[in-house]
Amino acid sequence: MPGKILIIDDDADFREAISMLLEAKGYSVSTSANGKDGLDKAKSIKPSLILLDVMMTTKTEGFDLAQQFKSSKDLNKIPVIIITGIKKDMNLPFSFEADNDWLPVKAVLEKPVKPDILLSEIEKYVKA
Fold first, then answer.
1. CA–CA dist 16, 105 (Å, integer)
2. Mind listing the pLDDT tens digit for each residue in 96-113?
3. In this structure, are residues 62 and 82 in contact, taking their beta carbons and an 8 Å threshold?
4. What span, in angstroms and rounded, lies between the C-alpha atoms of 126 and 5?
5. Peptide bond into 79 cis (omega under 30)
6. In Å, how far from its chain's centre is CA 82?
7. What is the pLDDT of residues 36-86, one digit of tens each?
8. Is residue 47 within 8 Å of residue 5, measured between CB atoms?
9. Between 108 and 118, whose confidence is greater?
10. Cβ-based neighbours of 102, under 8 Å, separated by 6 or more
């Protein structure tokens, strides 16, 4: 059975491009354009992994959603990878590294993400 990946990102072009890449590698892909729909989809399809944007409906929606996944007994075992246009070198007033308390995700990748880097990160947690 192929790994199921849920992409939660408000950029339709990004969702389509990453979906095509992952489907070509044998993954089953579902997408969502916002956090509320993404949370509902995650609960219904139980993906093997979630790719999550940060800034969607609000500037922190992805951070908030990562915390919701962590606190859900049904979803807290699903690996989450953040892919964002926010750059780590922007001198933000907070750490932008994966951290089980503040940012409970497996990795933080910057857009534009190179396909080989994305696939390598995904393959650490789920096979096609």
1. 23
2. 566 666 578 999 898 999
3. yes
4. 9
5. no
6. 5
7. 999 999 999 999 999 999 989 888 899 899 999 999 999 999 999 999 887
8. yes
9. 118
10. 94, 95
Domain 4-123 class in CATH: alpha beta
pLDDT of res. 107: 92
Helix (H) or strand (E) holding 13: helix 12-24
DSSP string, 40-109: HHHHHH--SEEEE-S-SSSTTHHHHHHHHHHH-TTTTTS-EEEEESS-TTS--SS--S-BTTTB--SEEE
Q: Which amino acid is at 32?
A: S
Q: Cα(19)–Cα(71) distance, rounded to whole angstroms?
A: 27
- Looking at residue 100, its pLDDT comes to 60
More confident residue, 88 or 123: 123
Name every residue whose Cβ is closer than 8 Å to that of residue 122 and which is 6 or more positions away in sequence: 3, 5, 22, 27, 49, 51, 81
Q: What is the pTM of this model?
A: 0.90
